[in-house]
Amino acid sequence: MAKEQFFHPESAELLRTLDEAAHRSGLSRGQAFDDFLHMLVCSLSGGRMEQQYLEVVKRHSSGKPGKRGCDSLAELFGRTVAAMEETRDEMKDILGDLFQGSITYGQAGQYFTPEPVGRMMARMMVSDVPEEEQHETKRVGDPACGSGRMLLAVAEIQPHWTFVGKDIDLRCVRMTAINLALRNLYGYVIWGNSLADEQRLVYRTGFNLTGFITEVPLGDCPEPVQKIAVQSSEPPLETMGAPMPRDESSHAEVDGCEADMPRRTNQLHLF
User: Fold this and answer.
1) In this structure, are 38 and 137 located in the same domain?
2) Global pTM?
């Protein structure tokens, strides 16, 4: 097994608690982490995903109270929130660090943008917004959001904006939704393929008097969010860098098939 490597020291302690939960439940580390994310999303929904929660938690409910896997996962939740709140001026991506450093190890090239680079890109993008528009509510989208750290970088500067992320990995979608929800940031996180017209699930984040995460149909999202969800492979209205000419394309693999995709220099974009 590859050696764990973290950018945040708190992640190593979180891993020990995660491994304890996996051991108590007789599951792999990866399955325990997936269940933890699912249970956390359900917990933040204000009771609207109770049935989903009960289906997942029963895999971690065997044993005496205090010695069950679910007890360790509850402790992991508390430790994760505490680690996130250690620095108020920077929104740490603890979940993404734990995921990349001890779950996937960069499997299939799944390496997240380093947080300092994300902050630099966010400052570059926000600096392009005219001063008179700085306090307007804008939408910022990331078509391959990973754990949402690029959106968090923008939120450090403009927390009142609406944040839209999309990813093909459901674990990443849930991490992004949790990262936004625990900071009470308003946005939409879409599970789907940004290289194809595919949307499987949408989470809306931000407190709505019931909970912080809501599962919603794409049709209930604002029209601009619906458009970006189905047209994320098209050139955005405003970008961090000019798109490459349309005749310059790269190849990406989608469901085992090669597809032409316009090359671009941007990841975050405003719409």
Assistant:
1) no
2) 0.85
